[in-house]
Design a protein that fits this description.
Two copies of one chain form a homodimer.
Chain A: E1 3-8, E2 15-21, E3 24-28, E4 30-33, H1 45-50, E5 55-59, H2 60-65, H3 69-74, H4 78-81, E6 87-91, H5 94-97, E7 102-106, E8 111-114, E9 121-124, H6 126-136, E10 140-142, H7 154-174, E11 181-186, H8 192-205, E12 209-212, H9 221-232, E13 241-243, H10 249-257, E14 262-265, H11 267-273, E15 276-279, E16 282-285, H12 305-309, H13 312-320, H14 324-351, H15 354-364, H16 370-383
Parallel strand pairs in A: 4-14, 5-6, 6-10, 10-11, 11-12, 12-13, 13-14
Antiparallel strand pairs in A: 1-2, 2-3, 7-8, 8-9, 15-16
Helix pairs in contact in A: 6-7, 7-8, 8-9, 10-15, 11-14, 13-14, 14-15
Chain lengths: 388, 388
């Protein structure tokens, strides 16, 4: 047994639990910072630990292309390579192959694609992805999935789902190591009947955990949440549920309320490098002239390293001058904010006050305008080249 | 008395001493990391302290343009603004005005220039530069100097020197605070008679310390060292001597041998961000394929944070992927290398073994080829825009 449920909220599907891994216990709900290339951007492992983070995400697609799986295996595995002795989840890279790489051809056998780094051609199968992840040695590993775009047709999404199911089965069969938890990825796009079908099929195979993939890709938030509800309804209560690519403070709370245990997203670290700081009232941008002479920290009662040591004016100055220290300090603040949020969520569930906590948080927190958010996301999809 | 000589090498002009400042004692010879904009690039104050660094340099020119002197004064001064409670030396920015800004007009009164950031026009006088540095509140402050190019004619260099002398006198007269040590800057280019004249004139005015400016700007190394010798010969033994803009490990050792107490340079941190790591055998570039699978640290017996925790292969990987963590880890290594070097130099002088230490270090350390070095320097002069 590698997941233990501890408490369920009486008013929602929110729950607390514990993931038991070879690299320590991970309390849930948990948010995984993204370290696609084997580093949480700008931070040392010690800094990530100091943020009370028990598990990080790395990406098989990125590490396969650079430095190569064999290099990391030769160095004693991913934990040793990146000097991180707590838990790691490796994503299979299915999503990256279908979004970041130039996709050449997908067949039942596998997928032929070109590297986004050097254009080299690669053929990947479900069996290879498991072999790679066994070499990397993460605590939780993911099946290879085919991830359609959020606005693809029913037929396209159905085909991708069916292939994802076959691949999940092949991943399961090819697994050799007994010390890694393999999670399936539920697809089905924005079609409720496909989500149900995917959840039912994959749970019938029996995985250690279930991820919800193919969401938060540009569809409206209400659709994301509806699909989460529709999927969770067909998942076993005793297995961990992982909502991939989410996210923002408000989305995490909504996900928890719908029964999600695990989240990951590059958002907190990515927006930090653009000068956006999370506050209890929403995101603020440190580049705003209002901060140029503010002697207080960005969030006065925040006890993160950044807010304990530096004024908003100093951060404003570092961002104006493109000082690399700026990106670190913002990253520390945002991950600290999310880490605090997860602690508060857990404690509220344990105390039976989660619904009140959620209502209160959402009443104060002004989400970034959805239209702006979607535009930023599209812009990011088009421009990204730094491995997140 | 703010400088105490402790020991002089019997075979050279090398010496150890102590600078007494309002923010602690600074043992000499000392190297100051550069934090032009109020941050040692990529590092937190805690990290700089952990490298056993007792004083950093910040730049009045940069801080005047951004965020503005009044902002920093309003925040309680530079120490508080940048959260650094050890000693600070502020350069006057003379060199930056004459190299980085678009110079509009220099007169005996002062200098009119355009900001390298936004093209705005500014008129600066010696009195203003002292006023700015009194507002910033550094422990050691510098006079405004006119810094000619290394290949300027004798007449041009002589005129700049004469103006530097007048300005130094005006700086001295306008100083109000009694708790800051004001250092003069000796100019005179590559002309021995001017160097002597400048040293004799400025020492006759009586400053707390003497800097040698206008060197390491593109002239050959043997010329730099000859000018250092020619200048030090006319400086009082009981005052600290500061060689501005130097530098590399080999140049620091040669400077110490010629009686220099204080050094500053962006070189160790700048080359770090390009992947160059100091080793006892010379600089190596982590981008070299030889490091792609090296399980050992870059410098196996180095006990810096970077070498204690990460393989050369991981650093190679981080640099390949443009991970910001790479720049931090390289910066820590290079500053740790220089910090160790300064400790070894002091201990060798105290033990009377400095000459042997110097010969041994230089026999092993292969300096970067001078031609390449000068080309890199020229390239950097042309391209820099990040405040170092």
């Amino acid at each position: 047994m590698d997941f233990k449920l501890i408490q369920i909220c009486p008013d929602s599907k929110a729950r607390t639990g514990e993931l038991v891994t070879p690299h320590g216990m991970v309390p849930t709900p948990v948010f995984l910072p993204v370290g696609s290339q084997g580093a949480v951007k700008t931070l040392t492992p010690e800094e990530v630990k100091a943020l009370d983070i028990a598990m990080v995400l790395a990406n098989t697609y990125h590490l396969y292309l650079r430095p190569g799986i064999a290099v990391i295996e030769g160095m004693g595995g991913l934990h040793k390579f990146m000097a991180w002795d707590r838990a790691i989840l490796t994503d299979s890279g299915g999503y990256q192959i279908f979004s970041l790489a130039s996709l050449r051809r997908v067949s039942d056998e596998g997928v032929l694609f070109r590297s986004h780094i050097d254009g080299s051609e690669h053929f990947i199968t479900p069996e290879l992805i498991i072999q790679f992840q066994e070499s990397l040695g993460a605590d939780i590993i993911m099946v290879l999935d085919e991830c359609p775009a959020y606005d693809d047709s029913f037929e396209k999404v159905q085909t991708a789902m069916a292939r994802t199911h076959q691949w999940a089965e092949r991943c399961q069969k090819s697994q050799k190591r007994g010390d890694q938890a393999l999670y399936a990825i539920i697809q089905g796009g924005v079609f409720p009947q496909l989500r149900r079908q995917s959840a039912e099929y994959l749970t019938s195979l029996g995985f250690s955990g279930y991820a919800i993939g193919g969401l938060s890709l540009g569809e409206p938030k209400r659709v994301t949440l509806a699909m989460v509800e529709q999927t969770v309804a067909f998942l076993p209560p005793d297995k961990p549920r992982y909502l991939m690519g989410v996210g923002s403070p408000e989305d995490i709370i909504e996900g928890v309320a719908r029964g999600i245990d695990i989240f990951d997203s590059a958002l907190p670290t990515r927006v930090a490098r653009n000068g956006a700081f999370f506050t209890p009232l929403g995101r603020v941008n440190i580049g705003n002239a209002a901060y140029s002479q503010m002697e207080q920290p960005v969030v006065p009662d925040c006890d993160c390293y950044t807010c304990r040591n530096f004024s908003a004016a100093y951060l404003h100055h570092l961002f104006s001058g493109d000082e690399l220290l700026a990106y670190r300090l913002a990253t520390i603040h945002n991950l600290s904010f999310i880490s605090d949020l997860m602690r508060q969520i857990k404690s509220a569930i344990l105390n039976g006050t989660f619904s009140a906590f959620k209502d209160n948080f959402l009443a104060n927190y002004k989400p970034t305008d959805e239209q702006i958010r979607l535009e930023q996301k599209q812009k990011w999809f088009k421009s990204r080249n730094r491995g997140e």
